[in-house]
Amino acid sequence: MNALGGVAEAHYKADVERGKPEKSAAARVAARRKAPARSAHAARVEAIFERFAAAMPEPKGELEYVNHFTLLVAVVLSAQATDVGVNKATRGLFAVADSPQKMLALGEAGLAEKIKTIGLYRTKAKNVIALSRALIADHGAETPNNREALEALPGVGRKTANVVLNIAFGEETLAVDTHVFRVSNRIPIAKGRNPLEVETGLLKIIPARFMRHAHHWLILHGRYTCKARSPLCGGCVVADLCTSSEKTI
Fold first, then answer.
1. pTM here?
2. Does the annotation mark 240 as catalytic?
3. Are both 188 and 220 inside the same structural domain?
């Protein structure tokens, strides 16, 4: 008895010959039905970023820095801290220590004193001194422009490396902080259970022409509009494209 039928049977035989796993006719139909939904989502995401680009053509990060080294330090210090709080501490710090050599001369105790208003300042001071020493020893006191070298530095993880690569070197990386994670899952743009899943999803769905600034658009949208507790949906430029159950309009 032929349980598959003409076209389906032909697909099945062809797949078996190619060594592909068996897929039922019903599964084929379901897959075809899902394709338009993915296309519609891609078009919606593109429209979202067109709105972001129109509202803010040249978004900028809010951490203050004077060169690649101070950017790296500022991002390391910003972990579990606000940009405003980091900027208050680093204005005085960078006035006296804007290079790895000057940071080492300041020393761990001197650095800790200058950043003591920032959370986890003792651990961060230790890491900044260690990464300054590593930059001098391994990179000629220059901030490296590749992920592997950056992530090998003390206190530098994937998110920090992504920020530095994007802002300092213009790479199309996407750092997922709490704001990006929330916005991406809420609107939604790319859902994920952890930052890496969200980052991977965003890199797949965001059109290439928006990747240079995508990181900043999402952070700023999450910080000032799509807030955690009270999203300002009335002033949101993508409110009509958002399908979140938390939407207030």
1. 0.82
2. no
3. yes
Please say if 247 is a catalytic residue.
Answer: no
Which of 23, 34, 177, 227 is labelled catalytic?
A: 177
List per-residue pLDDT tens for the chain, 249 residues long. Answer: 334 344 444 443 444 344 544 455 566 555 555 555 568 999 999 999 999 999 999 999 999 999 999 999 999 999 999 999 999 999 999 999 999 999 999 999 999 999 999 999 999 999 999 999 999 999 999 999 999 999 999 999 999 999 999 999 999 999 999 999 999 999 999 999 999 999 999 999 999 999 999 999 999 999 999 999 999 999 999 999 999 999 988
Report yes or no on 62 lying in a domain.
no
CATH number of the domain that 152 lies in?
1.10.340.30
Name the packing angle between helices 195-205 and 211-224 (round to 10°).
130
In the set 114, 159, 227, 240, the catalytic residue is: 159
Specify the CATH number for the domain of residue 217.
1.10.1670.10
DSSP letter (8 states) at residue 233: G
Its domain, for residue 80, covers 68-169
Environment class of residue 85 by beta-carbon count within 10 Å: exposed (0-12), middle (13-18) or buried (19+)? middle
**Which residue in 134, 241, 125, 114 sits closest to 189, CA to CA?**
241
Number of domains observed in the structure of the chain: 2
